[in-house]
Every structure is written in structure tokens, then in C-alpha cells.
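Students often ask what a holo structure prediction actually looks like on paper. The answer is less mysterious than it sounds. You provide the chain, you provide the ligand, and the output is a string of C-alpha cells encoding the 3D arrangement of the protein together with iron/sulfur cluster.
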Amino acid sequence: MPEPVLAVGGLVPFTTIDFPGRLAAVVFCQGCPWRCTYCHNPHLLPRGAGALSWPEVLAWLETRRGLLDGVVFSGGEPLLQRDLPFALADVRALGFATALHTAGIYPERLAAVLPLVDWVGFDVKAPFADYAPIVGCDGGTAARASLELLLAAGVAHEIRCTVPPQLAAAALGRMDAELAGLGVAHLTRQTCRPRASR
Ligand code: SF4
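The corresponding C-alpha cells follow.
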């Protein structure tokens, strides 16, 4: 079987905050179809080959066995990578737990990887009808479908929202009500920090 093709834009070798309860590395996937006004990884948004090949990442992970216990796939939007299921399987085969950071852009692809992940950090952007001004397209329907899949799967998760300044209090109230209606027990709100100039 051919090696998975994964566009890896970068790697953080050690984190204690991106995968709860785990010492982990973060694999940053290259590419995202959305353009959130506050995205802090704009260099990862264009689609492209990435800086590292998947075999290179896998070879490095081999050297981390016994030192780390988890690997996080972040981005960009990791579900843009069609070979993500194979990469997750590779990581599990090395004995690491797996985590995914996603905005729920691709529900069908999320459904395919849920059996392969131990934890999901799911970003909600706004009330589902109000995604366009935040993400640059009408992504709320896909995001809602993805969130429903995640909640139904019973995979450990955190639902979080980076609250941009343009989201008014009334919209936040609608978002909270929508999420509660779907069964979200807790929403972690993060303050939107101004993007540093590069
Ligand atoms: S979905 Fe995430 S990676 Fe994509 S533009 Fe928005 S914040 Fe950036």
C-alpha cells in the first residue's frame, strides 16, 4: 500500500496544552478552505505540499516513543487531508493516542476518522446561520452536521469558540441556546486576540 500523503506545514515537538492529560506533539496540516477573520495560522491556509513529508514525521515520531503519549493533528483544517485516516492509523500503530483539532468543515470525513481519534477539539465559530461573515463562506450547515456526528459518536471532546469582536451578545446567546439544544454540556469561550503582524 502506498504511503499516506499528508501536507504537513509544521511540527511542535512537545505540548502539554493541546491534548488534555497527554504529553503530545502537534502536527500542523497545510491548507484550509475557510478564511476566519482572526486566524492565527494564516501561513497554513494555502493548500500546498507542506514543509515536511509524512514519512519524515513518522520517522521522527518513532524516536519519541516512550517520551510522548499523544499526537495532535491541527492546522489549517486537518480534514482537508484525504489521507488523514491512514496517518491516524500510523500514529496509533506506534502506540500514541490521537487528537484532532477541527472546525467541522467536512462532516463525511469527520465521520470516517472518529473511530481513529481519542479526543477532538471542535471549534464553533458563531450561531450556525451566522458563519459567513466570520469564515468567509456559508459553513454553518457543515459545522452543525459535524458537531452532531461528534456528539453522537461519544468521543471525548472539547467544544470551544474564539469569540470575535463582531459577534454581538445577542448572537452569543443564540449560539449558546443552539449548542445546548444539541446536547453540548460545556462551551469553552476563548478571547479573540488581535493577530500579530508578520
Ligand atoms: S477554520 Fe481554523 S485554520 Fe481555517 S481559517 Fe478558520 S481559524 Fe484558520
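The chain has a mean pLDDT of 94.
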